[in-house]
Amino acid sequence: MTFTGKQLTTQLDADGTLTVQLGDKTWDAPKPGQVLIKVEATPINPSDLGLLFASADTENATYSPGKVVARMPENATRAMKARHGMAMPAGNEAAGTVVAAGEGAEALMGKRVACVPGTAYGTFAYADAAMCMPVGDEVSAEQAASSFVNPMTALGFVETMRLEGFTGIVHAAAASNLGQMLVKICQADKVPLVNIVRSPEQVKILKDLGATHVLDMTEPDFMPKLIDAIAETKAMIGFDPIGGGTLAGQILTAMEAAASRGAAFSRYGSSEAKKVYIYGALDLGPTILNRAFGLTWDLGGWLLTPFMAKAGMEIVGRMRARVASELTTTFASHYKARVSLEDMLSKEAVGAYNARRTGEKYLVLPNG
Amino acid sequence: MTFTGKQLTTQLDADGTLTVQLGDKTWDAPKPGQVLIKVEATPINPSDLGLLFASADTENATYSPGKVVARMPENATRAMKARHGMAMPAGNEAAGTVVAAGEGAEALMGKRVACVPGTAYGTFAYADAAMCMPVGDEVSAEQAASSFVNPMTALGFVETMRLEGFTGIVHAAAASNLGQMLVKICQADKVPLVNIVRSPEQVKILKDLGATHVLDMTEPDFMPKLIDAIAETKAMIGFDPIGGGTLAGQILTAMEAAASRGAAFSRYGSSEAKKVYIYGALDLGPTILNRAFGLTWDLGGWLLTPFMAKAGMEIVGRMRARVASELTTTFASHYKARVSLEDMLSKEAVGAYNARRTGEKYLVLPNG
Fold this sequence. Notes:
Two copies of one chain form a homodimer.
Chain A lengths: L2 E10 L4 E11 L6 E10 L2 H7 L9 E3 L2 E5 L2 H6 L8 E2 L4 E8 L10 E4 L8 E5 L4 E2 L6 H4 L4 H15 L5 E4 L4 H13 L3 E5 L2 H9 L4 E4 L5 H12 L3 E4 L2 E3 L1 H14 L14 E4 L4 E7 L8 E4 L2 H8 L1 H13 L11 E3 L7 H7 L8 E3 L4
Parallel strand pairs in A: 11-12, 11-14, 12-13, 14-16, 15-17, 16-18, 19-20
Antiparallel strand pairs in A: 1-2, 1-6, 2-5, 3-7, 3-9, 3-20, 4-5, 7-8, 8-10
Helix pairs in contact in A: 4-5, 4-9, 4-10, 7-8
C-alpha cells in the first residue's frame, strides 16, 4: 500500500536562492521500527525556522501558491554550504494517526500519537516508533502536536540546573509557550524562577499563572530589580532564547552583582559559579558581552538532543512520562493561528510566524 | 626588630578619583607561617594593572613624584563600589631575600625566594611561607621575579585541556612572555598548539622558538588559515587574554568550521565540544560573538586561583616542581624596562606599561 500527498521542502542553492515549496510525494510502507502517520497537527517552532528560512529576506521574497523564493545573505549562504542544492524536508514534531506500521511497531496501528518525524510539514510522515507517544482519544491532535520540543526543553532546563549543582533559574523571553510550561514546572518542583519578559502584557500572562518574579526588561529599573530577584532566589543559571544583543551579558552582570553583595572587593570578581545558556536565536544579531562580571562565569549553547544524550535514559524516561501525564495541563500550548500546508507559505503567514514574536505561534493542519 | 620603607597603594574614592601613591610604612616581625622579604624584583602583570589603574584615564592624570591622581569612568567607579576609600597595596608576585621569618618558617631565613605576596610593590613584603619557592644563589632575583603568575597559568592551560578532555590548544596574543612559555611546554609535552599573534615580528619570535602554527590575525587570510590549523591539530580549546572584540567568537567559528568539514549539514551545527576561555582583558571593550558556530559551544572566564583549587594538590604540586626546575629555561621572562618604585609612577612608565602591549613588560626593582 502507498500513500500520496504533499511534502514541504526547503532548498538553498549556492547562488543564495532559497526555495521553500510544496511538492507531490508518495509514501511506501514504513521500515521495521517505524510508523507512517497521517499528520494532523504540527507546530512551527523557532527551531524549525532556522532550517525553513534561516536569515533569508522573506519580506522581499516572491510568493506564489505553494512556493516562496527568497534571497539568503551571502555570509549565511556560505556558512550553510553543506546544504546547498538539497531539497530538505522540515517540521520537527507533530501529532497524527498511525496509518501503517513497520515490523515491531504493529501495536501503534490506528492510534493517535505525538512524535518527532523531522519531516512533519507533509500530508504523511515517517516516525521512529520508539519516540512515539500514544495519547488516547480524549486528547486532540492539536493538544498533542507540541509534546516534544517545548515540554522536553522546559524539563531539560530544570534537569540541567540539578545536574550542574544550581538551585534557581533565570529565564528570558519567559512568556512563550515554553516559558509558561517552565513556570508551572518550577511551581510544582519548588524551584525558584526569575522570569524576564518584554512587555507589561507578558508580565500579566505570567503573574496570572502565579509566577513570583516577573521582570519587564523594557522598564528603566530592570537591572536593579533583576539583581534583587537573583539575590533573593540565588538563581545562578540562566536560559536565553534571544541570543543576540546584551541580555545574556546583563544576566551574568546581575548574577555577579548579587553574588558580590556584602562581600569584600576582589579585582577578579566573585568566585561563585554563574552560567547562562543561549538556546535559540530570536535575535540573529551578535551577542554583546560587556564583561562586568569578573572571571568566574560561563556562557554556552544549549540544545535538547545532546542534553538528552548526556542526561541518559533514566532522566529522559522520567521526563517523557511527566509530559504524557500532564499534556493538557502543565504542557498545554497556545497558538495564534491555524493554517493549511498551502497557507503556511502565504506572505501573510510567513511574515507573522517568521517574526518569532512571543505569543504568535502558528499550527499547521496538513489534513484540514 | 622592625623594617621601614615605602609601600605603593591604590585608592578609588566614590567620586571617581583614583590615587596611586607611595607612602611610608613599617613592617613588624612576620606572623607564624609567614616570612618578610626584602623585595628585589617584581613584575607589572596585566592582572596587577586591573587593580592599580583599572580603566582610569592615565593619559590625562596628574603626575607628581611618587603619586598619580587620575579619573575613573563613572560606570567603573560604580562597579568597584566595594573598594571605595580603601588604600589597597598591590603587586602579585616577587623575588626577594627573607629578612625575617615567623614561627615554623625559620628554614627560609636569609634565602632568596620567589613568592606571591599580593603587596609586592614595596620595599618589604610579607609572604606565605608555604607558597615561597627558594631559588638558590645561581638564580638572580630578576630571573625569579615572575615564577608564579605566568608559569602556573601556562601550565594551567595544559592541565585544563587534559582535565576537560581536549587534545590541542589555540592561544591568542601568543607572543607574550606567557605565550612563549606555552610554546615551550607544548613542544616538550607534544601538545598541538595554534598560536595567534598580531604582527609579523611576533610571528618571527614564535617561529624562532620552533612553533609550528603561528598565525597573524592582521593578515587577510587569517580565518581560512585558522580553520586549516584547527582542522589539522584538532585544537578545540582556546585561551584568549584579549577579551574585547570579535576574536573569541572567531576562534569558536573556526573550530565549528573545522569540526563540520566533510560532515552532513545540521541546522544546529556540529556536536563536537568547543570551548574558549577568556583569561584577561587586554581589550576592555565588549566581547562580540557573531554566533556562527551552532549550539555546541562554550565561552567562560579562566582564573588561576579557582583553577588550582579545582585541580587539587597533586596537580598543583607537579606544576610547581616543574617551574622550579625549569625557571631559567622554559619559564624565562623578558622585560622591556626596569624601574624603581618612584619611576614606576612616572607618566612615561605608566603610559608604557598600562598600554598592555605584548613584549613591553616592566620589572620593578624596589631596592635598586
